[in-house]
Amino acid sequence: MSRVSVPCHVKGTVALQVGDVRTSQGRPGVLVIDVTFPSVAPFELQEIMFKNYYTAFLTIRVRQHTSTHTPAKWVTCLRDYCLMPDPHSEEGAQEYVSLFKHQMLCDMGKVLELRLILRQPSPLWLSFTVEELQIYQQGPKSPSMTFPKWLSHPVPCEQPAPLLEVSPHPG
User: Fold this and answer.
1) According to the lineage, what is the superkingdom (predicted)?
2) Which of 137, 165, 115 is nearest to 40 (CA)?
3) Among candidate residues 131, 117, 94, 114, the one with its CA nearest the CA of residue 29
4) What is the DSSP letter of 134?
5) CA distance 34 to 92
C-alpha cells in the first residue's frame, strides 16, 4: 500500500498556562497546535509522522466532515499517548514517531483539521513541541498483478548435496 503526503498548514503554537502567570512559577505545561489542510478535500488519514522535542504526552483531536447539513465535529482519536516514559528523563525526548490510523480511537475518514495537544508535566524542560510534522493519506492502489505459480508457491527448500571431503595429497 502506498502513501501520499498531504500538504498542510501548521498554525502557531498556543501555550496554555499552568500556575501563576505573574510569577516565575507559572509556565506552559500544555501546548496546542492546529493543523489545517486548505488545498485538500476531506481525506482518510493513514499516518502522522513527527520528531518529538521533549513532549511527554500527546492527545490528537480531529475535526471531521459529517454531512452538508450538520457542522463538523471534533473527536478525540488519541488520548495521552506516551512519548517519554519518564517526563523527567531524556528517554524518548527526541525520537521520530509514526502513528497509524489503526492506533486511533476513531475512524480517520473525512478529516478536515487536526489538533495536537502536547503535555510536559516536568519543570526540567523549558520548551517542548513536535517538529517535522508530516501527514499521509493512502495513495492510489497498485493494480493487482498475477504471479507465475512457481513464484507465488515456492518449492520447499531442498537439502543441499553433501560436500565431498577431499583429503590432502602428500606433497
Assistant:
1) Eukaryota
2) 137
3) 117
4) E
5) 23
pLDDT (tens digit per residue) in 122-150:
988 889 999 999 999 987 765 555 555 55
State the Cα–Cα distance between residues 47 and 49, nearest whole angstrom.
6
The H-or-E segment that residue 151 falls in is helix 149-152
Query: Quick one: DSSP state of residue 29?
Result: E
Task: Write the burial class of residue 27 (CB in 10 Å: 0-12 exposed, 13-18 middle, 19+ buried).
Answer: middle
C-alpha cell, 150: 512457481
Contact, 141 vs 3, CB < 8 A? no
| Residue 111, all three cell numbers | 478529516
What global pTM score does this model have? 0.75
Q: What is the pLDDT of residues 26-55, one digit of tens each?
A: 556 899 999 999 988 899 999 999 999 999
HSE, side-chain direction, 13 A CA sphere, residue 85: 2
